[in-house]
Amino acid sequence: MKTVSNPAVGTAHGKIILMGEHSVVYGEPAIAVPFPSVSVMATLTEKSGSITIESDYFTGELDQAPHSLDNLKAAVQVTCEALGQSASGFHMHIQSTIPPERGMGSSAAVAAAVIRSLYVHFHRDLDREQLLRLVNVSETIAHGNPSGLDAWMTSGEIPVYFQKEKPFEPLPLQMNAYLVVADTGQKGQTKDTVRDVSRLEQLYSEEARRIIRRLGALAEQAKVAIQEKNPVQLGECMKKAHSQLMTLTVSNAHLDRLVAAALYAGALGAKLTGGGRGGCMIALAADRMAAEKIAAALEHASAEQTWIHSLGGD
Ligand code: PMV
Questions:
Q1: pLDDT tens string 197-206
Q2: Does pLDDT of 143 surpass 90?
Q3: Does residue 25 have its Cβ closer than 6 Å to ligand 1?
C-alpha cells in the first residue's frame, strides 16, 4: 500500500532583479533577490481518477487546462516521472499572489510549489539540486530556454550575484533599508526588449556596448554597496542604472513616471526591474516611514499594487 500525505502543501515565492537586467545577457554581472512578499502555495489532496486543478485561471481537468498553465502541466508530468508514480489520483489547488508576466518568476514559482507538494504527497525527500533540475526541465518544456535564475530565486532564500555561464554566487543582503516594489499593471515585455537591445547592439555596437558595460559596472558597485551595507550608495547605483536602461529603450512612460514619483517622494534610488516596458519597478527607502510614503506616492502615480520589503536591518 502506498503512503501519502493528505493534504500535501508546497510553497515558493517571487523574485526581483535588483541590478543588471539586459546587460546580463551580454556577460555582465547582475544581482537578484528573493521576494517573499508574493508567493504561491500548491495544496494536493488525494482523489480517484484524473488530476483536477483549481486556480485563478482555470478549474477543471489538468488535461483541459489552457496553454498559460503549460508550466504546471509540465511540472506535474516531470515530477511524477521522477517519482515513478502515475500522473493521476489527486486534486491540486494553486493559490498565488505573484502577478504573472511581471518578471517576478511566477511560472518557476508555480512549478517549484507543485513539485514540492508532490514530493510531500509521496513522502519522498527532495533536495535542492533535484528541485532546481525539475523546475528547469518543466520551464524548458513550457517556455524554451530558462537561465535557471527564476528556479533558483523562487525556491531559495539568499540573494545572488550572477554572470552568464558561471555558478550563482550567494550575496547575503542585510541592510537598514526597505525595498518598495510597484506593479505597473502592464505585462512585462522581456522578449521584445531583449530583441530590441540586440538590434541596438548590432546597429550601434560601440554606444550600446558602452551602456551595457556601464550597467555591468553599476551592478558591481551595487554588490560593494550591499557588502558594505550602504543603502545610499546602492540607491545611487539604482538611479544611474535606470537612466542607462532608458537609453537602451527598455523603459516606458509608465515606468519612468513611477521612478520619478518614487524619487520625488524621497527614495534613495529607483529603477525598472526585469525585462521592462511594463512589469515592475523598485525603489529603495531609508526606513519604514519613508517606504510607506514612497508606496503611497507610487499608488497615487497609478501603480496597480505596491509591496514593502524589509532588507533585513530590523
Ligand atoms: O523579465 P524578467 O524579470 O524575467 O527578466 C529578464 C531579464 C533580462 O536580463 C532582460 C533577460 C535575461 O534573460 O536575462
A1: 999 999 989 9
A2: no
A3: yes
